[in-house]
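Homework help board

Subject: predicted structure for assignment chain

Our instructor gave us this sequence and asked us to write out the predicted structure in token form, then describe one feature. I got the tokens but I'm not sure how to describe them. Can anyone check?
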Amino acid sequence: MDGYSYLLVSGTLYSPRTPSTALRAVLEGLLPPEAFVQRAVSTQSLLEKPYRIEELERLLAQEQLDYDTILLLAQVFKELVSSPDMDTALFAAEGMNTLESRYNEKIQVYRVLLDVDPDPVYRKKLAFLYWELSGLNEDKRSIRNFYLREAFTQLRRIQEKEPLDKECGILMVKILLELDLLGQAKDVVRKFDPVGEDPDYLLLAAEIAFKERDVDACCGVLKKNPSLRDLSGEGDQDADLYHS
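My token output:
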């Protein structure tokens, strides 16, 4: 699994200026190991331009990529598909097609398995595949929404057989958020976390409140759990590494 997914969120994290500072941050648990690697090795980042086709080809050849890296590749391909260089544009178009085809092949496998054995485990796999495929089509709203609804349908089918586990419950809320069905998303959060103490559901509840433009409610939800207080602007922060 490649560590490029760190680059997607690095803008929201502490960004060390030197390899030694990066190593200290990693040892303190403030940053993932990829942060040190990215600083210590003098290689061009996948996010830096001009993009290196050979690096894109290397990543594309790996079928077991983490989802964040897949999204990053898709982002680059969508930009390169408009390249004035025909070879580059064709490579980018084929790259996007490869990424989506891999998902469609997996979806077909699980659909066949479900025809033989309606195991909720297969439906869960299918739901997450549709969810990830919706992310690849973020710029195509109708297609994205189609995959979101397909993912939601699989979760509802699981519910008909057994209660959803936490992972599926969180996915259901995320789908409803993406579809802007905030009322339903709020109902699902209340159902799975009636006491309002689970950090993951609290974070989703805060996101719902934020989308409703209720900033006070958003901050109020974040303050309910110590692990989320820093997100609301409160809580202690160890700034030693930030001033190295």
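Reply (TA_rk): Your tokens look well-formed. For the description, you could write something like this. Residues 17 and 47 are 18 Å apart (CA to CA). That's the kind of observation they're looking for.
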